[in-house]
């Protein structure tokens, strides 16, 4: 294999070691300017970056042999993604590597804000012992609104499971809600939320998303957490809302004033007025863009990148592909002469909790997520099992139905009909070798409850 990879930022050593072992040729250049790297990028098939400079059109035009750009981080906004994709360059990011870190950091900021830990700590260090003014708030009973329900948003919602809070999410994609957060409209989120947590990418649409009008649309005073990108918030508008009491406090891991590299704070000299306010405000917790920056994520990010580059060039090993397929039994469906009477019999004699559709069994998977399995008799003349002639139909829970159906088709498995999306998940159908129809279900279990 003759694949040369240029690394322009330092990363966990396992990244280079494992790529080397896989047979890639690795070169480091942590110091040359963008212009200097542009002169030699034509010699490389891959580039591994963090955030040192923007990969723009000029750069991409010079990268005539580039096959992939891997970013050891979650967001890809420092890359002209559209242009790169138009040149058939694969984009690789590693949100799986730092989503747990971001979620724990966000929760840490939220609990610290609610319990005034930053202020109390400062006061004690300066000899003050103020109990009343350090009285805290409890999360219990509050509503947390998450905007952007992707890797980070989902991971944060999972951390909130142990608290008695209602978790809502808003996203531009449909059907992303799950057992940990109910998907709602932006209006509903703004009406109900006590805490807003941003987990959106930085795009033209989300740039300055949280401005005066956006804040005014919230029905109640609320707390803001931002671990996305600083420019998602108009800081001056948020500060005005803090002064008026509409925003109760803020936990900010990212600031409007950061440089694109995240390595330094100010683009220009001087401290903006709104930032000066944040610096002296007791109800504000700041951290220097480190939510995803833990000892554990340092290694995990590198591993995810290696795994994805490996997958691009060598595909998944049979184990990796199979592992992700079925995650549980989603349901057993069978034909019955009189489904209603049968359901009543099972309720009476076996104590099943039944409804018109049969019975739903609830259980928890290894990660503690609520999962359901459905047991349902169908009318004898149902066409739902066709083209199968059998009396039974099985339903399996899967993690990524769209990808799985593509893989199954490639393997020559008969796929019946098109994938369908409903409130409770995505459905697809296949036939096994004996002519049994199998329903594949990527569930949204919460809706059933
Ligand atoms: N602070 C840190 O250290 C740190 C670490 C990792 C990620 N991040 C940031 O967190 C953010 C989220 O990352 P992710 O990996 O979860 O991304 P993701 O792509 O997995 O999820 C983002 C979600 O936001 C949704 N979205 C996009 N535009 C939207 C809009 N206008 N309104 C509502 N939803 C919208 C998308 O549909 C998607 O579901 C990014 O900005 C990323 O850069 C920060």
TrEMBL record:
Parts of the chain that traverse the membrane: none
SUPFAM superfamilies, A to Z: Formate/glycerate dehydrogenase catalytic domain-like, Glyoxalase/Bleomycin resistance protein/Dihydroxybiphenyl dioxygenase, NAD(P)-binding Rossmann-fold domains
Keywords of this entry: NAD, Oxidoreductase
Chaperone found in the keyword field: no
Domain of life of the source: Bacteria
Gene3D superfamilies recorded: 2,3-Dihydroxybiphenyl 1,2-Dioxygenase, domain 1, NAD(P)-binding Rossmann-like Domain
CDD domains tied to this protein: 2-Hacid_dh_14 (cd12179), VOC (cd06587)
Residue ranges of domain VOC in the record: 328-443
Record has Iron as a keyword: no
Any one GO molecular-function label of the UniProt entry: NAD binding
Protein family per UniProt: Belongs to the D-isomer specific 2-hydroxyacid dehydrogenase family.
Protein name: D-3-phosphoglycerate dehydrogenase
Native source species: Flavobacterium granuli
Lineage per the UniProt record: Bacteria, Pseudomonadati, Bacteroidota, Flavobacteriia, Flavobacteriales
């Amino acid at each position: 294999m003759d694949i040369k990879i240029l690394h322009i930022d330092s990363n966990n050593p396992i990244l280079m070691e494992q790529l080397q072992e896989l047979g890639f040729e690795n070169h480091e250049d942590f110091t040359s300017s963008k212009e200097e790297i542009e002169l030699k990028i034509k010699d490389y098939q891959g580039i591994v970056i963090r955030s040192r400079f923007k990969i723009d059109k000029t750069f991409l035009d010079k990268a005539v042999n580039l096959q992939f750009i891997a970013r050891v981080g979650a967001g890809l906004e420092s890359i002209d993604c559209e242009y790169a994709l138009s040149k058939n360059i694969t984009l690789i990011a590693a949100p799986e590597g730092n989503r747990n870190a971001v979620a724990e950091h966000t929760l840490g900021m939220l609990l610290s804000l609610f319990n005034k830990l930053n202020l109390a700590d400062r006061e004690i260090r300066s000899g003050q012992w103020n109990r009343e003014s350090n009285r805290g708030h409890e999360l219990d009973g509050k509503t947390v609104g998450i905007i952007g329900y992707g890797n980070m948003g989902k991971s944060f919602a999972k951390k909130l499971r142990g608290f008695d809070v209602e978790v809502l999410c808003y996203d531009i994609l449909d059907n992303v809600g799950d057992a940990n957060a109910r998907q709602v409209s932006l209006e509903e989120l703004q009406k109900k939320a006590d805490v807003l947590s941003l987990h959106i990418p930085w795009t033209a649409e989300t740039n300055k998303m949280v401005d005066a009008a956006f804040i005014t649309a919230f029905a109640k005073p609320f707390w803001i957490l931002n671990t996305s990108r600083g420019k998602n918030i108009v800081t001056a508008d948020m500060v005005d809302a803090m002064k008026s009491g509409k925003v109760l406090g803020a936990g900010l891991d990212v600031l409007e004033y950061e440089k694109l590299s995240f390595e330094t704070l100010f683009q220009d000299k001087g401290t903006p007025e709104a930032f000066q306010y944040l610096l002296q405000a007791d109800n504000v917790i700041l951290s220097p863009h480190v939510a995803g920056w833990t000892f554990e994520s340092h290694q995990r990010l590198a591993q995810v990148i290696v795994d994805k580059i490996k997958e691009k060039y060598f595909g998944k090993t049979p184990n990796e592909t199979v592992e992700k397929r079925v995650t549980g039994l989603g349901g057993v469906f069978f034909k019955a002469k009189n489904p209603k009477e049968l359901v009543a019999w099972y309720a009476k004699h076996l104590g099943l909790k039944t409804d018109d559709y049969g019975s739903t069994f609830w259980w928890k998977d290894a990660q503690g997520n609520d999962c359901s399995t459905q047991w349902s008799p169908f009318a004898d003349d149902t066409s739902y099992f066709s083209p199968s002639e059998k009396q039974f139909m099985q339903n399996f829970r899967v993690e990524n139905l769209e990808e799985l159906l593509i893989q199954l088709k490639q393997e020559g498995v008969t796929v019946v009909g098109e994938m369908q999306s409903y409130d409770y998940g995505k459905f697809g159908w296949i036939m096994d070798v004996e002519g049994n129809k199998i329903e594949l279900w990527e569930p949204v279990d919460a809706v059933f409850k």
